[in-house]
Structure prediction request, 262 residues.
Amino acid sequence: MTATTSDYQKLRAHLAFLRMTAAAEALPGELDHAVKAKLSHQAFLERLLAVEVAAVDERRQMSMTRFASLPSPFTLADFDFSAQPSVDPKLVAELGTLRFVEDATNVLLIGPPGVGKTMLAVGLGHAAVAAGMRTYYTTAADLAARCHRAALEGRWATVMRFYAGPRLLIIDEVGYLPLPAEAAAALFQVVAQRYLKGSIALTTNLGIASWGKVFNDDPMIASAMLDRLLHRSVVLNINGDSYRMRSHRARAEATRRAVAAP
Ligand code: ADP
Ligand code: MG
Prediction:
């Protein structure tokens, strides 16, 4: 390929105008390579654009990761299934394909503290982000607080749109704190507006039968919410030992042995 200086400068200007900074940076090298390797126009252009695509893709991935606000880096691959026999590895692998997001299925992770509910929900979150799905993590308490602030500031519609947006919304720790009536109403509205439209992965320490408790013994709102959550859902009941306690026990055991040893 032959190119004049002014062609080159125009090309730089086009790339700058289009904010294709990665392609602009790669341009001299790619032109050199094209000449040396006698690339076709098509092959050269493809290589140059691929550089820009990779850069944009990486930026998008980073911004999606930031937006998702996942509280830990754990992925599904980090989950130790041998420590938690009540969790079916095949089911988790199936969830990891994210097919459940395609038809707005919800995932309910139910179990006592420390059994890995948050870890699994966050692992699903990382998988979703990696698959290019907009994901957002919140605790139930944070969701309630944010909705409360929004209500005070007259931004209710905006905050509801915000929680409707992500393909996958993770709501962690439902049931740890009883929700005031207003917070329960906010959570209900978030669940209701996502119903059949977007997936929720929800963790709770409460068995489904005791959901009334989260909602101040308001069985109406509890059952209306459960209807929508469960209609299309996968429920994981995790009833094993706390993983935290397990390693704590192992440490205590090791310490005891060390102390007992002469
Ligand atoms: P929960 O949300 O059910 O209270 P977490 O997901 O926060 O429990 O798990 C508690 C801690 O134990 C976390 O640090 C988590 O990474 C770890 N953990 C729990 N279960 C497992 C597991 N099966 N494999 C590896 N780590 C686990
Ligand atoms: Mg948790």
About this structure: The first helix runs from residue 5 to 17. The pocket of adenosine-5'-diphosphate (ligand 1) is lined by residues 74, 79-80, 83-84, 111, 113-119, 203, 243-244 (CB under 6 Å).
